[in-house]
Amino acid sequence: MTFGGGNTREEEPQVPGPKVEPKVESVGDECVICTEKSQSHVIVPCFHLCLCENCVEVVIKSGTCPVCRGEMKEIKKIFKV
Ligand SMILES: [Zn+2]
Ligand SMILES: [Zn+2]
């Protein structure tokens, strides 16, 4: 390898690549923290349903909603039919 030449910057042609579709956030029923179990708890007062029973403690400790970072005052269990 020889150094000292001109800095030949390779200009990459701006070829529009394949359109990358924004990943559709498949907000399924999974808990946003462990993404394993289904959501069963809602955060009050923002009412983000995003937790499973296992991760309730995590949010209680942090005191904030993992979705909107808002204040968590209460967590309620919801019952889906
Ligand atoms: Zn969880
Ligand atoms: Zn929230």
Q: Can you give a write-up of this model?
A:
By secondary structure, this protein is mostly beta strands. It has one domain (23-81): Herpes Virus-1. The protein has one helix at residues 56-62; strands spanning 41-44, 48-51, 74-77. Strand 1 (41-44) and strand 2 (48-51) form a beta hairpin. The mean pLDDT is 85. The chain binds zinc ion (ZN) (2 copies).
Question: Can you summarize this structure?
Answer:
The chain is 9% helix and 15% strand. With 81 residues, the protein is mainly β. The chain has a three-stranded antiparallel sheet, with no helix packed on it.
Sheet with most strands: strand arrangement: 2-1-3
Radius of gyration: 23 Å
Spatial shape: elongated
Distance between the termini: 69 Å
Percent helix range: under 10%
CATH architecture label = 2-Layer Sandwich
How many domains make up the 3D coordinates?
A: 1
Q: What is the CATH homologous superfamily assignment?
A: Zinc/RING finger domain, C3HC4 (zinc finger)
> Could you report the average pLDDT, rounded to the nearest whole number?
85
Range of strand content: 5-15%
Which CATH C-level class is it? Answer: Alpha Beta
Determine the CATH topology.
Herpes Virus-1
Ligands bound, unique? zinc ion
Uncertain ranges: none
- Category by helix and strand content: mainly beta
Per DSSP, the total helix count is 1
Q: What are the secondary-structure elements, in order, as H or E?
A: EEHE
Q: What's the count of strands?
A: 3
